[in-house]
Structure formats: C-alpha cells, structure tokens
Amino acid sequence: MSLQMTTSQTVGPYLHIGLTWLIMDRIAGPSAAGERWTIEGRVLDGDGKPVNDALVELWQADSNGRYAHPEDRQAKPIEEGFRGFGRVATDDDGVFRFHTIKPGSVPGPGSSTQAPHISVTIFMRGQLKQLSSRIYFPGDPANAKDPVLALVPEDRRDTLVAQPASGKSGVLEWNVILQGAKETVFFDF
Amino acid sequence: MDVAQYRRPFWNTQPEHLFPQYASTVKRAPTKPLVMMPQSLTEVTGPVFGYDDIKPTDFDLTKQHAGEPIGERIIVTGRVLDENGRPMPHTLVEVWQANSAGRYPHRVDQHDAPTDPNFTGCGRALTGADGSYRFVTIRPGEYPWRNHYNAWRPAHIHFSLFGQAFMQRLVTQMYFPGDPLLPFDPMYNCVPDENARKRLVATLDWENTIPEFALAYRWDIVLRGRDATPMEK
Predict the structure, then answer these.
(1) Which ipTM did the prediction report?
(2) What is the domain extent for residue B91?
C-alpha cells in the first residue's frame, strides 16, 4: 500500500495551548554524564525582529554518542534515563534557552563519523512546515571532518556552530536568523 | 553507517516555505536554498514517549474542568500510518483548538467572542498498537484573522505528531467536511495538489458516532515512510 504524507500546516499563533505542557528545557538530568552546557539564542525574522511565537525542538545523543531509540543498535553503553529530547518556546524577546550535555559522536553516512551535534526543528506562525537545522560545538576538531557540515557552503557553516556567549561561563549562543546575509542554514532530507 | 532512507514527499503535496497568500511567511521563510543532506542515524531516530508522559484522561477535552464546555460534543478518531500503510503504534498525538465560539484562551487572541471557563482546548494521546487515536472534544468555531480583508479561518483542529523518527515529525490541521470557508483559506490552499488538500478534511464516521451523545469524525494521518524495510544486521 502506498499512501502520501499528510500535508503540513502551520502551528499558528496559539501553539502554546497545545504544545507547552511538554516544555523540556533540561535535556540532561543532574546525574547525566558529559560536558554541561546551556545553549541560548534568539529567533529573528527578516526585519531582525524577535519571533516571540516559535517553538524549538531538540534531539541529541547521550555523551556516549548513543540515541535513546530502538533503531540505534551501536555497541555503546546507553545512559539510563537519558531521552535526548528538548522543547522550548521563545519569549517576548525571541529568546530560547535549554540545558544539556555535549553529545558524543554518532555514525554518519558510509564510514563517516559525525561531529557532536544537536538536531533542531523549529515551528512558528508563518512557517507552513518546520525548519530543520543543527547545532555544532565550537572548537571541536571533529567539525572539520563532519559529513554534513561538508555539504554546507563554507561561508555559511558558522551559522551552525554555537559560540561561547560573551561574559557567561558555561553558555553557548546559537541564533536562528530566518532571512538575510547571516541566514541560518536549514536542511532538507 | 547507512540507514534506510525515508521517501521524499510526493510532488505538490507539501507547502513551500514562502507562500505570500499567507502573509506571515514573507518575513519568515528562508531566502537561501535549503541544504540537501542524506538521512543519518540522527534523522531516523527520535524521542520515544510512553504512558508516563500523559494522563489517561488527556484524550477527553470536555472533562478538564468542573463543568461541561459549551458547544457540540464530537469524537475525532483515526489512525496514524506511514506512507507504506504501516500503523505507527504508541506515538504521541497532541491536539489544540478554539472553543465553540472560535476563541482561544491565549493572550494573542483578541477576537470579540466569549472564552469558555470549561474549555482549554488541548489534548493528547498515545496511539494504540494499530496506530489508532481517539479524542472527545467540542466542534471548534470559525474565527476571523488579519491575513487579508475579511479573512476567516475554517473550523479546524491542530495536530502534532512524532512518529518514530525526528524527521517524521508533522504538525498539521484537520478540517470539517462541507466547510464553506475552505476555498478561501490560504492555509488549506497552500499546496497545488487538490487530493492532498482533500485529505486534510475529516469524514463523518457513523461507525464511531455514539447515538444521542456525539457525532464522530474520522481522520487518518500519514507520516513519511521508508523506501524499503531497514536492513537487519
């Protein structure tokens, strides 16, 4: 039987009613292993105005590079209680923030290895379907060999790499710029 | 490590990011081309939810407050499948909607219609082993919005689905059969394929109607499916 995927529709401006019961801004619990980071940023529209009605969802592996999912059959230990999912909404200033650990490396296509990264899905009014992006970690030598970053035009790769937030220790900044010269790279797959 | 790839959506059945008839897309749609990438373990895995995440009563939007909400009680039921027709078992389904007067209890909604203290308008459920879901709610009202002059949204229920992979994630809207506003709604009309649009409309479901209690509407939802069964190692 062959069916066709249901057409995507926008979350609209009232997404909070249905979706913020499950706000998960702590992806890693207090006992989770790994390098701890707060990641924060803003979602900005084509006029540089904050998007105050966006929902940002995150999916990542644990510090061993293992996904809490039955299809991940890697011979790696799995961290008990680590789901790897986050969901945060932007505030009036377009700011979102979540707390997590740096994931381990996971396999990429063929024999490649992906640098530590967090997969991001973004919903908002004015998006008829979600946007998909990735957050990479600054200064990781594995970024240079990452098979996905390699597909991105060199002058746009920095939009995918979080940067240390100035004056805040343990905090990385990663912004979602929807349009313009600094437009964030969005993926299709 | 190569993973079995999910199919690309069928031509003209998914919206583009930029759709000027829906004015909010103009300043929010990406202007640079999306970067095509192969699906990896990251994309084909995704969060797993369980019965600990929801309450068993979350499926009934009419029972969340002391009194009965105002409006026509309805049942909304269907199955979550993938494009290969396989049921998506135990997957999280989230819904939200306006009340019977077409009003959301949300600070952004300033439409001059009454809120209902007995209706919040959100629910959730996990699908059964056969991919089925069922909600009890009230029929949402139509409401005006400011997209263009005299713009009205047809009655709709918002749905959010996870499936089994982060890349199967889908947010969509269900509409009601015979709604005269559908031809004028930019969101409903965001894809060229007429059959795809019609699949957003539920059908009256006599089988699940409860006599002297509630009409039922049936709406099946299809998530992306794989080209081939993943190889077992």
Answers:
(1) 0.97
(2) 23-27+42-223
